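ok so heres the complex, four chains, lmk if somethin looks off
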Amino acid sequence: MLTSQRRALITTRLASDGQIVAGELAQELGLSEDTIRRDLRDMAAAGLLKRVHGGALPVTPALPDLETRQTMSTDVKKRLGRKAAELVHAGLLIFIDGGTTNAELVRALPRELNVTIATHSPVIAALLEKHRAEVILIGGRLYKHSMVSTGASALAAIAMLRPDIFFLGTTAVHPTYGLSTGDYEEAAIKRAIASRSVETVTLLTEEKLGAVSPHHVIGIEDMTALIMPAGMAPETYVAYRQKAVRIIEA
Amino acid sequence: MLTSQRRALITTRLASDGQIVAGELAQELGLSEDTIRRDLRDMAAAGLLKRVHGGALPVTPALPDLETRQTMSTDVKKRLGRKAAELVHAGLLIFIDGGTTNAELVRALPRELNVTIATHSPVIAALLEKHRAEVILIGGRLYKHSMVSTGASALAAIAMLRPDIFFLGTTAVHPTYGLSTGDYEEAAIKRAIASRSVETVTLLTEEKLGAVSPHHVIGIEDMTALIMPAGMAPETYVAYRQKAVRIIEA
DNA sequence: ATAAATCATGCAATATCGTGCAGAGTCAAG
DNA sequence: CTTGACTCTGCACGATATTGCATGATTTAT
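and the predicted structre for the whole thing:
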């Protein structure tokens, strides 16, 4: 692993976890603690993080992550969410995946709409408290990173459903490699839901395009539509259109 | 947890609660009181807080009416939650019912504690995002009023568990009629969980005592313990003690 | 006044840190 | 191709920091 890669990972990890523990990261990467410490020392000198005994913290201490993620790029996600909400009509069975972008979809859903919403994300379910929608919560063992149910019982519950639309949450979309994610179990669950759904749609912010994660979920050609921000360069998404996927701009 | 994070937490907690109790915080974080005391001593030396016997106070006391209003309603529940958290030990399987009082229990649980927590409330599950605990989410059809899973699939999932402690959320407790609630399905679920649990505990605020709702859950004699606010008139709860239920004051 | 809780201090075990040094790899000049 | 400067990395070692426990002092509550 290159030094710059390692340092990029540290930055990412700081943003997602709000902390770095030197010993843990050394073990995880199979490196000595000295290397990690040197990275942290240098990055602290560059003002990229705040060095503390035992590890490092972000320079701007992590706000409650709900707040952080909300403020990250709310505008774009809100627009995507509103556009996605237009696909939802009364009487349908909708499956909503976890993630902050899908949370915006939930917020954009009319409160009085008579739909049935299935989800394996307790966060999404909690957001539906004030809606009229019938909610089906998929249980299972919670995968802590993305906070969604996984495991055999979740798969069994999903097998009982036949959603009209699946709003898939994703972190990486690539024209050739399709959708991918960082966890094996998570990928399996998403695949199971998509395979049972009539339509599969995902909401995409720009930074996810072109990215690849270790675990393949489904190919672009298996998607019904991609909802992405308007105003992007055509060459960014022409590759997707060639796969006959519908592109909806928001 | 890194030292600086712990101290940041102390600052936050001082702002939100208006006080720090050394013993409680030590228990909550799974550390010795000495460590907390050292933090408080050092932070007091740095002028970040005011050290007092038993804990610490903010240097600039919070505006009185803001403090009282915010904490009046939740202060009692926070105390109940912290007391209840003392019952939870590493290695146990805990089932946590929905409700705002149980939410305070979750907030009081040590973040690093190795427990397994089952819940049929997406709200409770979402609160556990930052905890190390293994979380088992019980799925089903969400009963919107109390936001908990109900129905056959929830019952089936519960039948797989054998919780050590069930923290039952309730709205009505009566010395003769026991615990009751407003929805039939909800009562059935609570009964099912209680019947499979080794211990059943409930957190009670004063206004729930003596109330009766249409649907019976379980009798007082089937409870292991009631956790209720300290300082109530003895005649208020003597009737419960006669049922051989343990009364824990918080 | 007496019991219980809380505190400060010293001590030992562990974790983390900084520094110096050596081996391996890279790269460009010779 | 060889050589030497340079960088990166891991290890060793002593220094420092953190933590939990024991002990006796102090404070608080009854």
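quick notes: The first helix of chain B runs from residue 3 to 17. thats all i got rn
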